[in-house]
Write a structure and sequence with these properties.
With about 80 residues, this protein is an alpha+beta fold. Helix content is about 20%, strand content about 35%. A 4-stranded antiparallel beta sheet has the order 2-3-1-4.
Length: about 80
């Protein structure tokens, strides 16, 4: 299952966060973006439960991440 996660960072963060995020096996790609959100991460997981666990346990538990929003890609047949 593919999803995109929008990430808002706390005021103090390092450029190295992209490298840190890409170490997670679920994250295929991460980039800084301009606007309300700071980072967009492309994620590949098995199901919605795995996505939930990853976001809560791995991302939202980080001190440098303030807020996330997950966007699940709709399957097209």
């Amino acid at each position: 299952m593919k999803a995109f996660i929008l990430i808002s960072l706390n005021e103090i963060f390092s450029k190295g966060i992209i490298d840190e995020l890409q170490k997670y096996p679920q994250i295929e790609k991460a980039n800084f973006i301009f606007g309300e959100w700071d980072i967009i991460a492309e994620v590949n997981v098995s199901n919605s439960e795995e996505l939930y666990t990853f976001v809560i346990d791995s991302l939202r538990s980080r001190e440098d991440i303030k807020l996330t929003s997950s966007l699940i890609v709709a399957g097209m047949s």
